[in-house]
């Protein structure tokens, strides 16, 4: 929603700074932008609920990490 646009701009700016100043220099710790991402993510989720948009299947896979563990289970 429109309410999230400013949060998106702040997150994008933080991410771009992190990527260029830290990630590309070997520091892969992404905690720098984690708090603003969480606020932005909650804003988007709220806007989706208000618009009756549901992405439960995608959310379940990516928030629980199932997309990483599926291949691990097949190897054992």
TrEMBL record:
- Keywords, ordered alphabetically: Disulfide bond
- List, alphabetically, the PROSITE patterns matched: CHCH
Give any GO molecular function from the UniProt entry: phosphatidic acid transfer activity
Question: Which family does the record claim for this protein?
Answer: Belongs to the TRIAP1/MDM35 family.
Task: Tell me one GO biological process term.
Answer: phospholipid translocation
Catalytic reaction annotation:
a 1,2-diacyl-sn-glycero-3-phosphate(in) = a 1,2-diacyl-sn-glycero-3-phosphate(out)
Q: What is this protein called?
A: Putative tp53-regulated inhibitor of apoptosis 1-like protein
Q: Which GO terms describe its cellular component?
A: cytosol; mitochondrial intermembrane space; nucleus
Cite the Pfam families for this sequence: UPF0203
> What PANTHER family does this protein map onto?
TP53-REGULATED INHIBITOR OF APOPTOSIS 1 (PTHR46403:SF1)
Organism, by scientific name, is Haematobia irritans (Horn fly)
């Amino acid at each position: 929603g429109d309410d999230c646009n400013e949060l998106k701009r702040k997150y994008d700016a933080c991410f771009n700074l992190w990527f260029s100043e830290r990630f590309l220099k070997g520091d892969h710790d992404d905690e720098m932008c984690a708090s603003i991402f969480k606020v932005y993510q909650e804003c988007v989720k709220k806007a989706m609920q208000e618009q009756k948009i549901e992405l439960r299947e995608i959310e379940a896979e990516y928030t629980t990490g199932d997309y990483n563990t599926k291949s691990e289970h097949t190897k054992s």
